[in-house]
């Protein structure tokens, strides 16, 4: 947050607004690629040696910490960069447009996105027989498409 005024001066509105989707697109892409690699290559089986199981557990721990770090960075970028950039859009509007636009985006858009994500996850869970691991590739594909569209929309 301390650096955001400097970032707005150097990168401009579109550069700062694009920081959050870039963090999510590239960081999430790396995280999900690692998760899929872990799921299909390193998941210990019943006849796996103890050394391989220990290595798999260490990789899983790194993956969990990496996911937590991505979450912290994405929320930090959202609230210190993206939200101020979003609020700057409303400056040029009149009072009525500002109120209606903010309500539409904050109430309708936000809730529709959350609801749509929840419905998608439930449908994928039903299609995969309740296995979260089975829905991972489809979730990654949707995640990457949405992140890429968000990045393009801010440009």
From TrEMBL:
A cellular component term, taken from the record's GO annotations: chloroplast membrane
Major place of residence: membrane
Membrane topology according to the record: Multi-pass membrane protein
Compartments it resides in: Membrane; Plastid, Chloroplast membrane
Matches recorded under InterPro entries: ADP_ATP_car_bac_type (IPR004667)
Domain of life: Eukaryota
Entry GO MF terms: ATP binding; ATP:ADP antiporter activity
Residues passing through the membrane, by range: 12-38, 50-73, 123-146
A Pfam family matched in the record: TLC
Keywords: ATP-binding, Chloroplast, Membrane, Nucleotide-binding, Plastid, Transmembrane, Transmembrane helix, Transport
Stated family: Belongs to the ADP/ATP translocase tlc family.
Protein name, as recorded: ADP,ATP carrier protein
Natural source organism: Astrephomene gubernaculifera
């Amino acid at each position: 947050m301390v650096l955001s005024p400097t970032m707005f001066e150097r990168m401009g509105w579109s550069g700062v607004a694009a920081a959050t989707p870039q963090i999510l697109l590239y960081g999430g892409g790396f995280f999900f690629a690692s998760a899929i690699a872990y799921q299909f290559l390193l998941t210990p089986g019943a006849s796996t040696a103890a050394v391989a199981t220990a290595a798999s557990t260490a990789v899983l721990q790194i993956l969990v910490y990496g996911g937590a770090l991505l979450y912290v960075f994405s929320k930090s970028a959202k609230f210190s960069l993206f939200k101020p950039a979003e609020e700057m859009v409303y400056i040029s509007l009149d009072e009525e447009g500002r109120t209606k636009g903010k309500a539409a985006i904050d109430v309708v858009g936000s809730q529709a996105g959350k609801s749509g994500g929840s419905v998608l996850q439930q449908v994928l869970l039903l299609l995969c027989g309740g296995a979260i691991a089975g829905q991972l590739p489809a979730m990654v594909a949707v995640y990457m498409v949405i992140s890429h569209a968000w990045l393009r929309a801010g440009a």
